[in-house]
Design brief:
This protein is α/β, with parallel strands linked by helices and 363 residues long. The chain is 39% helix and 20% strand. The structure holds 3-isopropylmalic acid and magnesium ion.
């Protein structure tokens, strides 16, 4: 089959890790008889350098005309990069938020799995890890604090900043539905995370999630406060199946979840709307401090490409082949710098991509 993939290399390590994901996709195409047609588009800092804005209408148009978007990462060093001297709406992150909103990508799926092979890299003790964990964070992506009205004003000589946190019941309902649907295909448990002891938006969140749950009686629902969830993630991560949460809580908890998988370089993500279309990107950032050194871990991006095959293209066998190839490479002891431990073989970004691509097999 033929698929159109819009590709955003982005900033920092972005172009390096996306190149490795394309390498693996090309191998999949060869082995399984597909064709991926890539079109490079600019976003974030790269777009600011070329056009003065982090997201152009052209980028949006090309993305919309594609079957999916594969992305690396955007942004630079917030203390030294000139991009952060620009007005907030012209900075790299505004491009990412803009494209999420423009494409209505309200559901962000971030699976956090502890591979047996990476137990050494997990900072938690063996008694805590037990038999490992396999959770999925379902993060709402186009609402909440990220998209509420914000401003900084001066009142009687005192500066004051205002960010607004808004959720409508419709926004909560559609993400809750996605959470329950995916839980049905997994271990049938949803942990809805909020701050209902303080926030109105969380109280509405909890009420709507309860209502939606009535249609999914086969799925177990529990509620957890976000501070407790942050603690439970490092106390007993195996208790979680699907964590359903709003935008900012999901941002924070997914970084925490990624670290207990061994490295933030392992966490993939899919951002979906109500169709088959999606944007696929690693959960980590652009790591400007290690950009251009050929040491970044491309696995999160390669896993994101595998999610693209699964969710947007319905190519489950091909996605399985990528995941098998990654496991194989890890079992054979190859590690990028971030997941390296004693006695294992250090490989570069490019070598990791080559090794995974070479292990793509139909069975
Ligand atoms: C993420 C990132 C983004 C977010 C930033 C770059 C705006 O941290 O995808 O988790 O906060 O959503
Ligand atoms: Mg984040």
């Amino acid at each position: 089959m033929d698929f159109k993939v819009a590709v955003i290399g982005g900033d920092g390590i972005g172009p390096e890790i996306v190149a490795e994901a394309k390498k693996v996709l090309n191998r999949v195409a060869e082995k399984f008889g597909h064709e991926f047609h890539y079109q490079d588009i600019l976003m974030g800092g790269a777009s600011i350098d070329a056009y003065g804005v982090p997201l152009t209408q052209e980028t949006i148009a090309v993305a919309k005309a594609s079957d999916a978007v594969l992305m690396g990462s955007i942004g630079g060093d917030t203390t030294t990069s000139p991009w952060y001297k620009l007005a907030p709406h012209l900075r790299p992150e505004a491009g990412l938020l803009g494209i999420r909103k423009e494409l209505n990508l309200f559901a962000n799926l971030r699976p956090a799995i502890l591979y047996d092979e990476l137990k050494e890299a997990c900072p938690l003790r063996d008694e805590v890890i037990k038999d490992g964990f396999d959770m999925l964070i379902m993060r709402e992506l186009t609402g909440g604090l990220y998209f509420g009205e914000r401003k900084t004003i001066e009142e009687n000589g005192v500066r004051k900043a205002i960010d607004t946190l808004t959720y409508t019941e419709k926004e909560i309902e559609r993400i809750a539905r996605k959470g329950f649907e995916i839980a049905r295909k997994r271990k049938k448990k949803v942990t809805s995370v909020d701050k209902a002891n303080v926030l109105d938006s969380s109280r509405l969140w909890r009420a709507v999630v309860e209502e939606v749950a009535k249609e999914y009686k086969d799925v177990k629902l529990e509620h957890m406060l976000v501070d407790n969830c942050a603690m439970q993630l490092v106390r007993d991560p195996a208790q979680f199946d699907v964590i359903l949460t709003e935008n900012m809580f999901g941002d924070i908890l997914s970084d925490e979840a990624s670290m207990i998988t061994g490295s933030i370089g392992m966490l993939a993500s899919a951002s979906l709307n109500d169709t088959k279309f999606g944007l696929y990107e690693p959960s980590h950032g652009s790591a400007p401090d290690i950009a251009g050194q050929n040491i970044a871990n491309p696995i999160a991006t390669i896993l994101s490409a595998s999610m693209m095959l699964r969710y947007s293209f319905d190519l489950d066998k091909e996605a399985d082949a990528i995941e098998r190839a990654i496991k194989k490479v890890l079992t054979e002891g190859y590690r990028t710098k971030d997941i390296l431990s004693d006695g294992l073989s250090f490989v570069s970004t490019k070598e990791m991509g080559d090794l995974i691509a070479a292990r793509i097999e139909k069975e």
